[in-house]
Write a structure and sequence with these properties.
alpha+beta, five-stranded mixed beta sheet, two-stranded antiparallel ribbon, 25 helices, elongated
């Protein structure tokens, strides 16, 4: 193929935003065959190429290696051309003295991606290094960004600026639900993207300090204004001096927030532009302000902060109560207006779907923290002023203010708990993300400090607050002084929490990281399958635990029996845990919750099948039954990979065993022999093999609301039309027909004649010739006319993967709107009652699928 033709194709793909990787893996020396049916040739033979994301599968037979080699050579030529053009562009820009264009965030070469980094202005040049055990080739892709208004700049970008190469696992070009977002892998060596600027620890610490200062000053500003309103208007001299002091402090806080916001903006600009000097360039800062959502949010907040600072600096008469309320209320509203928009430029703005819900939760969380945390120091200042002899006139005012703040703080803490729980579910998701990621551990540290602060607040509320109304010299004033000290300590804990919050703002959420499980065990109900005695023990233990929980709740409600019930609760909870938890424990590994970097697609399954035949079939057998000839010499028999236990283990467990082996079983580790992608492809095949074994009992009858068999995604081509994928039909029922002529002609004619009826019912038919004939459309003929897609390229991959689920001359797999195989019909291709199929489709249409997440394209 000529270089100019490759260049034209590459440019066309870049314009459509579909540039990516194409890797050709050759399976040399693999003579074993898998999945034969009788004496016919197996469609999996000779297939050594896998699908990558949304790109078409490139199928290379064993006799086509010369053409594959030519493709690799031309790819390298194109890579050198791109690098030369990049150097010329940079030299030209440097000579003209223009700003360099911003670089794109790290991008995955394959799979589905939901990047939490935000868009950057300018042209993006992306260099991806694809490394494997045989060497590393560099591929080049680029595209012009169409603007930054559509997506928010995430504050997590600051976390990348430390020069740490983040290795991410991709999910493709489509943005999906938060639960389906990509995860990084600490074992990933395939994908590395380097930023052109490295931030030292000192610079990072300076940026983090700027963020903390900006957040703290904004929070204290809202709390100071709110505390004045909660305390109310007073005519006492001490209370008025306190009010003037708080107002003056609030004015300075507004100026500090504005100045620190400028520092944060400059730091973000340097990161987005990829150049430290951009922090001092008005043009670069202007691009961020005008072309990004974070810039828009910054402008809004800076305007409110400037307006608030000017408003607080004006000395106005507030002798009348209405004037006082209007002036102080306006300060609160301006402070809230400057604080709440932070939610639109943080992690919540990158959540999809339900972005608005996440932003609202974050806004309420920030607002609650602002009033509670920000009001602590002004309250402590008022209590300290009123506790002395000179401030005795303000003592009733201080007691009233403390009680009002205590009631308000109780409600604010409930708001913080509710919104914090929602945000944790959104950004963390599960226990693995909580204990196995940096973001999760920061959240645990935040919760630990919050528990200390709330414990101190509970002590203040239950003990010291009640004593404020006692005799002044002996009870009231000493209690007020102690309360002022404890409130100051509580405020210190809250400010320490804000340090952690600032660090969380520059750390990718746990859903975007691969959790490294820190324990050697985990809890799973899968451990109880087939173990009746252990299941009974776990049930008894859980019931004892419930009794303990009821006793604990009753003790909190009934004060007279609190201590006995608390003791009973502790005993019951301990005994219940001792009985219920051990049967649920199974072994765990650091990669247990690692998500695959290779999607669950037909191309990956067939590539994994070739790897299985080369590396695993000798012990586990050609069909995974554990009956391989080499397995007889092992210390213990090889596992039957078709059994349900394969699906019970996580993909991360399988990845660990394949990488490091299983001690005592004779199974070696394949980490040095197989690349990471190859290991994931092997896992995809194993999961499909186990699922196919379980699908033996699936027939043409649909079990209502029982979805378990995930349909692997695949890409295919129909004649000269652009490639399409099975996932493109998500939301509609799909009938995948594996047919072979001439035996299937009666059934194919029947489906073609009733295609209109099926289309009205919301059914898409995809016909796949088992013999992978590229002339399949012509062979079907024109009478009746076939209007549904007939695969002309990609059939071999589809057949090889889906015949793991059913082997017959003619197979029909009915896939529901969520992407699950719900019925499998095996036949010889004769005409059948089409009303049965119509009834099945109607049954699927009657099922409620709203609110259910579609099956992920990764095995777990």
């Amino acid at each position: 193929m000529k270089v100019c033709e490759l260049l034209e194709r590459d440019l066309d793909e870049r314009e459509r935003g579909r540039a990516g990787l194409r890797r050709i893996d050759r399976a040399e020396g693999v003579d074993a065959r898998f999945g034969r049916c009788g004496d016919g040739a197996d469609p999996m033979d000779g297939l050594v190429e896998r699908e990558r994301g949304d790109r078409r599968a490139v199928q290379v037979r064993r006799d086509g290696r010369g053409r594959a080699r030519d493709g690799v050579v031309t790819e390298r030529v194109m890579d050198r051309m791109h690098r030369r053009l990049d150097r010329e562009d940079r030299d030209e820009e440097n000579e003209r003295g223009h700003d360099q264009s911003a670089r794109a965030p790290p991008h995955e070469p394959s799979g589905r991606q939901q990047s939490h980094e935000r868009d950057r202005p300018g042209h993006v040049g992306l260099i991806v290094r694809a490394e494997n055990s045989n060497g590393a080739d560099r591929f080049r892709g680029g595209r012009e960004l169409r603007g930054l208004e559509d997506r928010a700049l995430d504050t997590a970008d600051m976390g990348v600026g430390r020069g740490r190469s983040q290795q991410r696992s991709g999910h493709g070009d489509d943005r999906q639900h938060a639960q389906h977002e990509p995860h990084s892998s600490e074992e990933t060596c395939r994908t590395q993207c380097q930023w052109p600027i490295r931030y030292t620890d000192r610079v990072y610490a300076l940026g983090l300090a700027g963020r903390w200062l900006h957040l703290t000053s904004s929070v204290l500003l809202v709390g100071a204004a709110a505390m004045i309103v909660l305390a109310g208007r007073s005519d006492r001299a001490t209370a008025q001096r306190w009010e003037r002091t708080v107002l003056t402090s609030a004015c300075w806080l507004a100026l500090v927030a504005l100045a620190s916001g400028i520092v944060v903006l400059a730091t973000q600009t340097a990161l987005f532009e990829g150049r430290g000097a951009a922090a001092f360039e008005p043009r670069a800062i202007g691009r961020v302000l005008v072309q990004t959502q974070a810039g828009h949010v910054w402008l809004v907040r800076a305007g409110f902060l400037a307006l608030l600072a000017a408003f607080l600096s004006i000395r106005m008469s507030v002798e009348r109560r209405a004037d006082w309320r209007a002036a102080r209320g306006e300060a609160v509203l301006l402070g809230v207006a400057a604080l709440v928009p932070l939610a639109a430029a943080g992690h919540a703005a990158a959540v999809e779907p339900d972005t608005a819900r996440a932003i609202v939760l974050d806004a309420l969380h920030v607002l609650g923290a602002g009033i509670w945390v920000g009001g602590l120091l002004p309250l402590a200042l008022l209590l300290r002023a009123a506790a002395g002899e000179a401030g005795a006139d303000a003592r009733p005012h201080a007691v009233l203010a403390a009680r009002r703040f205590s009631r308000a703080a109780l409600g604010l803490v409930l708001v913080l708990a509710a919104t914090g729980t929602g945000l944790a579910i959104t950004h963390v998701g599960n226990v693995a993300g909580l204990v196995g990621t940096t973001y999760g551990r920061l959240l645990l540290a935040k919760l630990a400090l919050l528990i200390l602060a709330l414990s101190l607040a509970a002590l203040n509320r239950s003990v010291l607050l009640a004593r404020l109304g006692g005799d002044g010299p002996t009870v009231g004033r000493p209690a007020m002084r102690r309360l002022a000290g404890f409130v100051t300590v509580e405020a210190g804990l809250a400010l320490a929490i804000l340090v952690i919050v600032a660090a969380m703002n520059v750390t990718p959420p746990a859903r975007h990281e691969a959790p490294v499980w820190p324990f050697t065990i985990r809890l799973s109900f899968a451990a109880l399958e087939g173990r009746a005695a252990e299941a009974t023990r776990a049930l008894i233990g859980s019931q004892i635990g419930v009794i303990g929980l009821v006793a604990l709740i009753t003790g909190l409600a009934v004060r007279a029996w609190r201590l006995p019930l608390a003791a009973l609760a502790l005993i019951a909870l301990g005994a219940g845990a001792g009985l219920a938890l051990p049967p649920l424990t199974i072994d765990a590994y650091p990669t247990t919750y690692l998500r695959p970097s290779v999607p669950y697609q037909a191309g990956a399954i067939t590539a994994g099948a070739a790897l299985y035949q080369a590396s695993c079939a000798g012990c586990h057998g050609a069909r995974g039954a554990g009956d391989g000839p080499d397995g007889r010499a092992l210390p213990r028999p090889p596992a039957d990979l078709r059994a349900p236990h394969t699906a019970q283990h996580t993909a991360g467990d399988l990845f660990w065993w394949i990488s490091h082996g299983i001690p005592g079983s004779g199974m070696p580790g394949f980490g040095p022999r197989l690349t990471e992608d190859q290991r994931w492809e092997l896992i995809n095949f194993l999961r499909a093999l186990s699922a196919g074994f379980g699908a033996r009992g699936m027939g043409s009858t649909i079990e209502r609301d029982r979805r378990w068999l995930v349909a692997p995604d695949f890409t295919f081509t129909v004649g000269p039309t652009p490639p399409r994928a099975l996932k493109d039909y998500r939301g509609r029922n799909v009938l995948v027909v594996l047919y072979a002529l001439p035996g299937s002609r009666p059934r194919m004619n029947q489906l073609a004649g009733r295609e209109g009826t099926l289309a009205v019912l919301g059914v898409e038919v995809i016909a796949v010739p088992i013999d992978a004939d590229p002339d399949a459309i012509r062979r079907l003929g024109d009478d009746p006319r076939v209007l549904f897609p007939v695969v002309t390229e990609g059939a071999e991959t589809i057949v090889a993967a889906y015949r793991l689920f059913a082997v017959a001359p003619h197979v029909e797999l009915l896939i529901d709107r969520q992407g699950y195989v719900r019925a499998i019909t095996r036949s010889s291709g004769e005409a059948m009652d089409l009303d049965t199929l119509v009834a099945q489709v109607q049954q699927l249409n009657d099922e409620k699928t709203a609110g259910e997440a579609p099956p992920e394209e990764h095995v777990h």
